[in-house]
Amino acid sequence: MSRAGAGRLTARGVVRRFGGIAAVDGVDLVAPPGRITALVGPNGAGKSTLFDCLSGAARPDEGRVLLDGCDITRLPEHARARLGLARTFQRIAVFPTLTVAENVLVGAEQVRRHGARAATDRALTLLGLAAARDAPAAELPTGTLRMVELARALAAGPRVLLLDEPSVGLDAAETARLAAVLRALAADGLPLLLVEHDTELVSELADAVYAMAAGRVVTAGPAARVLADPRVGLSWGEATG
Ligand SMILES: Nc1ncnc2c1ncn2[C@@H]1O[C@H](COP(=O)(O)OP(=O)(O)OP(=O)(O)O)[C@@H](O)[C@H]1O
C-alpha cells in the first residue's frame, strides 16, 4: 500500500487505571518497522486497554506513546489515525448496509484527501475481496468481514497497524490467508502489533512477543523463547478467548 514510510510505535511506562486498579501498569513496548510484534496474555491482562492507549481510544494516566519519536500521548484517536496509526477491533465493526467496497472507502476517506478510491481498489485486491466488492456487508460470513476490516485499515495507508484478535472467527484457510497477508505487509516495511490468542499463529508469525499478565509485561523477546517460558501459560490461548 502507498505509505509515507513505515513508522515505529513506542510505549514508555504506560499506565491506565480504572478506579484504583491499574489495568495497564507501566508497560514499555516497541513495534519496529518491518516486524510483527504480538501481545499475548490471559483475559483481563490489559492487552485491549494498552491497545486503546496506543490508538488514542484511551489516554494513559502515566507514561508516553511515541510515533517515530514524536510524543502522541495527548493526541485524540482521529489525529493519530491521520498520522498513520490504523487499528482493527476484536468485535467486527463494519457498516452492514454498505457494500464491501463502500466500507473500505469509508476507512480510506477518513484519513485521505486524495486517492481514496485507488487505495480502496488496491486493498480489496490485496485481500482477495475484489469479487465481493459489491456485496452488502450484512450478507458476508465472519471470515470475509475480518478481511473487510483489514482492507479498511490498509486503505487508510497506515504507517503502523494494530490488530486486535485478527484471527477470531476465521477457519484454517482464512487464517492461512491472513498470515500470508500480514507477512507480506511486514516484508513491505509496515510495523504490525497484534493481540492474538492463537499461540500457533503467534509462533508462526511473530518476530517478537510481549507476554502480559495483570497489567504488566511478564516477559518479552523472540516468539520461541517467550512462548516456551514457563510463566507464559500455553493454555492461555486455548482456555481463554
Ligand atoms: N472500561 C473499563 N472500566 C473498568 N474496568 C475496565 C474497563 N476496561 C477494562 N477494564 C478492566 O481492566 C482489566 C484489563 O482488561 P483488558 O480488556 O484490557 O484485558 P485483555 O487482556 O484485553 O483481556 P481479553 O483477552 O479478555 O480481551 C480487566 O480487569 C478489566 O476488567
TrEMBL record:
<feature type="domain" description="ABC transporter">
    <location>
        <begin position="9"/>
        <end position="239"/>
    </location>
</feature>
<dbReference type="Pfam" id="PF00005">
    <property type="entry name" value="ABC_tran"/>
</dbReference>
<dbReference type="InterPro" id="IPR051120">
    <property type="entry name" value="ABC_AA/LPS_Transport"/>
</dbReference>
<keyword id="KW-0547">Nucleotide-binding</keyword>
<protein>
    <submittedName>
        <fullName>ABC transporter ATP-binding protein</fullName>
    </submittedName>
</protein>
<dbReference type="InterPro" id="IPR003439">
    <property type="entry name" value="ABC_transporter-like_ATP-bd"/>
</dbReference>
<dbReference type="InterPro" id="IPR003593">
    <property type="entry name" value="AAA+_ATPase"/>
</dbReference>
<dbReference type="InterPro" id="IPR027417">
    <property type="entry name" value="P-loop_NTPase"/>
</dbReference>
<dbReference type="GO" id="GO:0005524">
    <property type="term" value="F:ATP binding"/>
</dbReference>
<keyword id="KW-0067">ATP-binding</keyword>
<keyword id="KW-0813">Transport</keyword>
